[in-house]
């Protein structure tokens, strides 16, 4: 593999790999990526280990090809306007990777507002589809700037539902609740602990456990040995760089 | 011709039928196919104290800034390519109106219930989220079947009037969308006691499906009270395939909206006159940008 020594993967590319892994062997479900790195990742997954994934053009069409991020699609394989998209969410045939303005230890996510909801310090988007997503189809999160302002002890407005909130709400809430992974610019996290608290799964190369601890506003579950996020293969690097994101949009989202 | 009644009106005639205190639905989604000409006509009127039902975009921003909203029912308010709507943000941060914040799918269920004259429709969404905390009026319902599941009962979103924008319509109110997404405009019309359709062009009924499939006929005249021809009536939001979003102008709007002095100038330049003045001012602005 002479090419990989010449072409060392960047932090953004490790993030792409970590996000793509969320859709490994997913079958015929819709990948809904929010953000650039997840968009690159979903396309990479489809071109490699998850060929049956469904992708959208970001508007109302299911696309039958895999154009570069930002480029136009030339093959339409389906129609997915918002109302059908919401039905697909509720039917569970979708795995969304959302962003988060705040996320806590049990995976509660906030995109609505910062501060008191009655009179917010900073109004954000609103809950959007986070409540329906988290109760109905697999959900992962992508956070390009890992910081204590995002990884908080308690979110101000639960938009996406975390493990503790779903459990408290009862069996209808937990029936299809399925938080898969959190990927940040520092590492990969999941909730595979006895109490479903967030756990460090892997660190991106060059990142230390202390760095993650300092950037996280709650206590993380830490395994004894923390692996490093896997290397992209030479072919995956080629697909990312030459096919899916030739203009390097991923580098605008992740600091080097 | 169908022989059906001629429901053509001007934007101002439509707004003339609206009253302060009404519950008003606005179609489209974010900064897409919003009936902006009707919103601008509304801004020229003295109709206020509105309960607004909208997948929010600049319609919400403009009406919030003008102090016309008493209560907003929404799942989000965004300009899409610009994530945060500055007027909406500022209005929320100063506590300018009451908010009913729902999830997108809960909102869809509410519209569907409204259109079907049901008191509510069930949904799983909302459980475990703070949507239930900030909306203490929301109730749950237990499935009467063996599963016994407890679900959220989304109350019907029933409106006094709805405003939507279509690509084409005929004079009796049959509305056609030619873009890829109907959004929820038919549901808005069916869930409202009166519904008003603005459109890029009013054409003969026979022309509607001359080059388009019949499933583009989104809105049926039985749910429409009035039709207004408003060319570029969704500007600066998108109305594909007739036109995309005017991104440079939207950016200018958002920049001005974030600063009170700049906003005064923006309003004086673009919103002080009628719809024709608006489009002339936008044209002139675009020429200056070159």
TrEMBL record, chain A:
Keyword Transferase attributed: yes
GO MF terms, alphabetically ordered: CoA-transferase activity
Keywords, ordered alphabetically: Transferase
SMART domains to which the protein is assigned, alphabetical: CoA_trans
Pfam family, one: CoA_trans
Gene3D superfamilies tied to this protein: Glutaconate Coenzyme A-transferase
Family statement: Belongs to the 3-oxoacid CoA-transferase subunit B family.
Record-given protein name: CoA-transferase subunit beta
UniProtKB/TrEMBL annotation, chain B:
A molecular function GO annotation: 3-oxoadipate CoA-transferase activity
InterPro entries: CoA_trans_fam_I (IPR004165), NagB/RpiA_transferase-like (IPR037171)
Gene3D superfamilies attached to this UniProt entry: 3.30.30.40, Glutaconate Coenzyme A-transferase
EC number from the UniProt entry: 2.8.3.12, 2.8.3.6
Domain of life: Bacteria
Coiled coil: none
This protein's UniProt keywords: Transferase
Enzyme class: transferase
One Pfam entry name: CoA_trans
UniProt key word Transferase: yes
Transmembrane segments: none
Protein's UniProt name: 3-oxoadipate CoA-transferase subunit A, Glutaconate CoA-transferase subunit A
